[in-house]
Amino acid sequence: MPRRRISVTGAPEAPLRAALAALRAELGVPEDFPAEVRQAAEQAARDPALPLGDATDIPFFTLDPPGSKDLDQAVHLSRQATGYRVRYAIADVAAFVVPGGPLDEEAHRRVTTLYFPDERIPLHPAVLSEGAASLLPGQTRPAVLWTTDLDEEGRTLSVDVRRALVRSRARLDYAGVQRDIDAGTAEEPVALLKEVGEARERLETERGGISLHVPEQEIIEYDHAYALRYRAPLPADGWNAQLSLLTGMAAADLMLAHGTGILRTLPAAPDGAVARLRRTAIALHIDWPHHLSYAALVRRLDPYDPHHAAFLQECTTLLRGAGYTVFQGGGLPAHTLHAAVAAPYAHCTAPLRRLADRYASELCLAAVAGQAPPDWVLAALDALPARMAEGTRRAGTVERECVDIVEAALLKDRVGDVFDGCVVDVDEHKPTVGTVQVLTPAVIGRVEGDRLPLGERLRVRLARADPGTAKILFTVV
Asked: How far is residue 136's CA from residue 140's CA, in Å, rounded to a whole number?
């Protein structure tokens, strides 16, 4: 599911770099791996546990942003008499990580890769995540290979999961794939991305699911100042995301049928969160009729429109109730659905960047083989939701604090200026303090005033914008 992405283009000024470095220090973010972890990673890179299966004859390709090196997934699409065959290879991190060893213990401490505007803090050492375990082109790699057959409407007919060696033939990026598909020059395995992706998007709409095509929030540095723009995702981003969703839904179904698993669950958004989002829509001049559902509105939004792009950023707040649900021994949990997917769903497609995915892969392999999961998986399963919740909270804190720091840098030279905005939240214990969504630039900050008219447009003056304190403060004019 999407996260709020923010980047800084150009050479960030010293105060911004210092503020981001201070945030990492404050959160205790590890900048490097301990020596014994690096040594274990180098040894694992030289001598992984290789599978017996061989699928190196399949011409897989990867699809990621330009310059990506931590390639979790590779794909091959083909036509079948009944519809389509989706082969989806996922990096087999368990081929490199010994349960209970230094790499495993460090991954349990880190839980997820952390993304800052100026750098990322990886889950695994680069020798694995960007090297021996990554599905780089022209390299033979151990993988967990999913083969999913779909009918002509994109509905799942059968699923198989097994370990195999794979070899990606090409590292593609979204812009290039979109250009080739639009021009009609893409070879069939790539051209089918649109056909299969659109079929899965229609099924998503049918079941009531929602995919947020969240633009990247980009801060551009020039002449010692910053400007804000949004980089909208291409349709190819969405089609590729549908393959990941397809695999995550298939994984959830396998684990539920086998009676042991770990699901990614999300309850329906509370009324208060949706009401806050409606106030944000008012602030950004987005027409949201009361009869129109949230899902229907999201499908109408244009991520190339800056106001819509800013609103899509705020839509990610409805995903904050997501968690991990474990079950084993045959008893199924009371709640199995992910509200945004509108189906049972599991994280399994990004094991280089997320701890839980390695466990989900093992559970699915065992389910298809009709075997009990490995003991090391069962031993860790009950504690995994709390571990993932801790890591997810840390990632959420990083995201929120980075947004505050970068937006403060964006506005640091505009203290005293007046902006149009809308109060989207008021502190119930302190009604003179709230949150304001500014129209242009589309930023959110703290607002103070004797009267904060919730949901109404008003004018606010920027009283403070200091990247060092990571805080923006507005006052009501």
From this structure: 8
Q: Please give the Cα distance from 55 to 410 (Å, whole number).
A: 49
Question: CB under 8 Å to 9, separation ≥6 — which residues?
Answer: 218, 219, 220, 221
* Residues 472, 52: Cα–Cα separation, whole Å: 57
CB 318 within 8 A of CB 212: no
Q: Is 14 helix (H, G, I), strand (E, B) or coil?
A: helix
DSSP 128: I
DSSP state of 353: T
Give tens-digit pLDDT for 392-427.
999 888 888 888 888 888 888 899 999 998 888 888
Which helix H or strand E contains 220, and what residues bound it? strand 216-222
In a 3-state reduction of DSSP, which class is residue 320? coil
The beta-strand segments (E) located in 56-189 are 60-63, 73-80, 83-91, 114-115, 120-121, 140-151, 156-172
CA atoms within 13 A on the CB side of 225: 6
Task: Name, in order, each residue with C-beta under 8 angstroms of 392's C-beta and a sequence gap of 6 or more.
Answer: 111, 112, 322
Residue 381 sits at φ, ψ, to 5 deg, of -60, -50
Model pTM above 0.85 = yes
